[in-house]
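Hi U.,

Before I forget, here's the chain from the pilot set. I'm dumping it here mostly so it's searchable later in email.
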Amino acid sequence: MTIEKTFVIPADRRLTIEVPNEIPVGPVILTFTSVPATTEVFKKSEALDIELINHNAERLNQEAMDVLSFQRLEI
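Structure:
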């Protein structure tokens, strides 16, 4: 099985990859291929970023509230 996804490498050169359940556990080959910087690629990347943020928004908001509530206990 092959899954292809375009990422924009950030300045710190770190990516976090979540592997779909459809990929079996075991060895895989991860290949990096540079892509010319085109408007289309960046629009897709921005859309993927927004989708990822929206997908995780509830969890991130809850984590933020947990941190804030903990900080209030320390005062």
